[in-house]
Amino acid sequence: MTEEHDHFHTEGCLGISRVLARIGDKWSVLIVMLLADGPRRFNEMKRMIDGISQRMLTLTLRGLERDGLVSRTVFPSIPPRVDYELTPLGHSLREPVMALGQWAQANLVGIAEAQAEFDRRSADAAAEPPLQRAAGMR
Question: How much is the pTM?
Answer without folding.
Answer: 0.70
